[in-house]
Amino acid sequence: MKNKGIQVNEISEKTKASFKVRVITAAVIAAIGIPSIILGDWFFAAFFLIVACIAIYEFIHVLHNQKHFIWIDVFTFIMTISFIYWFMIKQQLSSSGSIIDEANHIMFNDIGISTLGIAFTTCTLFFGSMLTKKFNVPDVCYYLTMSILVTLGIQSMYFLRYVPISPLSESAPGFKYDGNYMYSCFLFVYFVIGTCMTDIGAYAVGILFGKHKVNPRISPNKTWEGFYGGIAISFLFSFTFGLLISYFNIPLLKGILDFEHWYWILLISLVMPIASVLGDFIFSAIKRYYDIKDFSNALPGHGGILDRIDSILISGIFVTIIILTIAHFPFFS
Asked: Is the backbone of residue 213 left (phi > 0), alpha (psi -120 to 50) or beta?
């Protein structure tokens, strides 16, 4: 009689070798990224400045074969960097306050892009498309979309690392963690667990049990088994971590993501893996449209920086929006 139970897929030597390379690369990334996350402040700011520069270069490099005017690429790079950091510079220069608190720690409590900057960039890119056939309207839309996604995604990284000590609202005035600034990294650690475990869980479950494709046209290797496995594993790890940390009186975010408001931790723990998968599909669709496998080969086994942080960027935007919504609408408290 034929066994109709759960069957484990046979793992090829190629898959084993690929997995080994992915693990080694991930370990190197962790060795560089984890200290910056823990130390925060300018270490974290510098780390994500480097990430942002590489990510911008990668999405611009996608169109390098079209040989359009170099000033279009330089302009897009400069404007995207300005979008990311103008919000911080504006807050620093405003009369309402500084992004540096009395203990010299960086504060960051919102995200946003200059509407004037977007308008200027849009007009300039369309002007560029009028000057050459090698940079057309779909390319303008691609540059604008990627610029906005990378901007909001990187800003979300800063928000999630710095907001635990930042005054966000009356219900979330900022928490000093009894002077131990490093405790403020737990919100970002929680976020990293939620997003990265989605990818790890989906990859592992997909390899072992994946049979039914989600959308072969956009991402031929992703399966429904991996999708549900990634969500389940991510939720289990992130929700457990968030609840335990809050139980021991180290709130992820005082007044919003603490033990008293456990239901918000549950909600975000569910949203993170779903948003991560959405981010993966968004960037996969872009790669399919431009007929490229990866944005670059910067990270062996992972592709480029954008291939690694695609889900992180989109998930970060969603989590940030949820937190800001809860903080600024009292009836959610």
From this structure: beta
pTM of this prediction exceeds 0.85: yes
Instruction: Find where tokens 């009369």 sit.
Output: 95
Using CA atoms, how far residue 301 sits from 213, 217, 307, in Å, is 22, 22, 10
State the pLDDT at residue 333: 55
Smallest CA-to-CA distance from 76 within 111, 125, 114, 13 is with 125
What amino acid occupies position 206? Answer: G
Q: Give the start-end residues of each E strand in the chain.
A: 213-215, 219-223
| Two tokens, residue 139 | 């390319």
User: Using one digit for the tens of pLDDT, what is the confidence trace for 264-290?
Assistant: 999 999 999 999 999 999 999 999 999
Q: Quick check: 169 and 109 in contact, CB under 8 A?
A: no
Q: Which residue has the tokens 């970002």?
A: 188
What distance lies between CA 299 and its chain's CA centroid?
17
List, for residues 104-139, the tens digit of each pLDDT value.
889 898 999 999 999 999 999 999 999 999 999 999
Output 8 or 176, whichever has higher pLDDT.
176
What does the block give as tokens for 136? 């057309």
pLDDT over 70 for what percent of the chain? 92
**SS3 assignment, position 305:** helix
Helical spans, DSSP H, in 248-304? 262-289
Q: Which helix (H) or strand (E) holds 93?
A: helix 70-93
DSSP state of 106: B
If you count them, how many residues does the chain have? 333
* Amino acid, res. 115: T
